[in-house]
Amino acid sequence: MNEIATAFSIPELLYEEGSFGVFALVTLVLGGGAAWLTGRAIAQTWRRPWQIVAYTLILGMAVRFIHFSVFGGTLLAPYYYAVDSAICMGFAFLGFRTARVAQMINQYGWINEAGGLLRWRRKTL
Question: pTM of the prediction?
Answer without folding.
Answer: 0.85
